[in-house]
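Look over both lines before class:
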Amino acid sequence: MKIFFIGADDANQRLDKFLKKLFPQATRGLIYKINRKWKIKISIDGINFLKQDNEYKLPLNSQVKIFLSDTDFSLLQAKKEENKIMYWEKNILKKEDIVYEDGSILLINKNPWINVHPWENKSKEASLIELVHDYFWETLTSLTFRPSLVHRLDRDTSWIVVIAKKKDMLTRLVNDFKTHNSIKKIYFALVLWKLPSKEWKIEENLTRIENATKENKVKIDKNGKNALTYYKVLNEYILETKNGKEIISELEIEIQTGRMHQIRVHLAYIWNPIIGDKLYWNKSFNHYICQEFGFCRQALHAWKLEFFHYERNKKILLEARLKEDMKNFIDKLK
């Protein structure tokens, strides 16, 4: 028999969902069976323990008493071992990649070519969230909550990734990112050719293409969802190629909406595609840049992020340095 104390990160969730997280090897049917046989009792005063329905929401500071043997606990709580290449071996998650950390959030300057979730693609390399869980190891005290990604990211780009270390912070920031409340995202990009203006906005509706696989997944559509992108030209470079000279423009970009592939589609639409974009631009030019300059991904970087920090009760603006491959490419352009 064991007693589990319900803290802030475990409270206000249904009993069956709490048990499923606590016992990852248990089926939902087994969890229902254990509760049905009076093996789980809950107390809000630490004295009186009562049986509750599976839908019962666990109050803060309540206690859950579970009548199972030590062997059953070990079997039900065991985690599936996977053949992952941990960050210690690959040296992926470095201290210099941590942009900011406090008791409730962690911000990482994500390297390109890393999946953010383990189920994306069929790679055996550790995903970003697995690296984060290893980074924290056993320092967090929640029974069921683990540090979680606030937003989604593309595999082949470098970004500021926001990870919530507390359940309440996760809920609030996910809502802010979804509604764009108090969120300001500024990107850095390298695009082909000269822009029509030094500063401008692109306001074209976007719609997702149904059943798209490797081809374009988003298109300009007057009946689609509104999308607004601002850009400012920071620099222009002359690139000598075998076919002559090309202009490469360095941009600062701010988006007011967060549509899928918004920046990529908008810039391709005005004939200033992002270098290295495999979906919305010329593959042969991307191959040339990769072969001649060693830059083999899309030149898009989540550069600055402003958001409201609820525990500190103020807005925070953070900046993530450019990754080495992008810095080296720019140095060669100079």
Observations:
- Confidence is low (pLDDT under 50) at residues 81-91.
- The radius of gyration is 24 Å.
